[in-house]
Design goal:
The chain is mainly β and about 160 residues long. The protein is about 5% helix and about 55% strand.
């Protein structure tokens, strides 16, 4: 997962690996689709070691006590070009509602209708203060944007 933030008026970016993802897509009935994604904040990376260690610290994500970030969908609604995924995200043991925009892509050169390999992109934003990740409020803005990409292969 890629995330962006603003620190001292300067935009920054980082990554956080997906530990597990369980994504079920029903192209005939979007409401039957579902997703559950677990991120590993202990393995997050930013542009500098200082920012990365601060992100993991007790004042922000407190990864020693909260080693996972989890999103579980409650509903999926189809829309032209993708879907809206509504669910709950848990950060630092605090669960809040989150709505993500979903877009689905096939690899370049794929035959129309080929669903054997897909990429799902989920985008949205959270307010870090909603989860108690409030360290350094004079330096770091409250909004963190999310960009999750999952590569899927057709299963039986």
């Amino acid at each position: 997962m890629r995330f962006t933030y603003t620190l001292g008026g300067v935009d920054g970016a980082g990554t956080m690996p997906v530990s597990t993802a369980d994504i079920v897509l029903d192209f005939d009935n979007a409401a039957a689709s579902r997703t559950a994604v677990t991120l590993n904040p202990n393995r997050a990376e930013t542009s500098t070691g200082l920012i990365t260690s601060t992100l993991k610290s007790q004042d922000v994500l407190n990864t020693a006590q909260y080693p996972e970030i989890v999103f579980i969908s409650r509903s999926v609604t189809a829309k032209p070009g993708g879907a809206v995924v509504t669910g709950d995200v848990t950060v630092r043991g605090v669960t809040r509602p989150l709505t993500l925009e979903a877009t689905i892509y096939r690899p370049e050169g794929s035959a129309p209708g080929d669903r054997s390999k897909l990429t799902v992109r989920l985008t949205g934003a959270i307010n870090r203060h909603d989860f108690g990740a409030s360290g350094y409020p004079d330096l770091v803005e409250e909004t963190v944007t999310l960009d999750i990409r999952a590569r899927l292969r057709l299963s039986d």
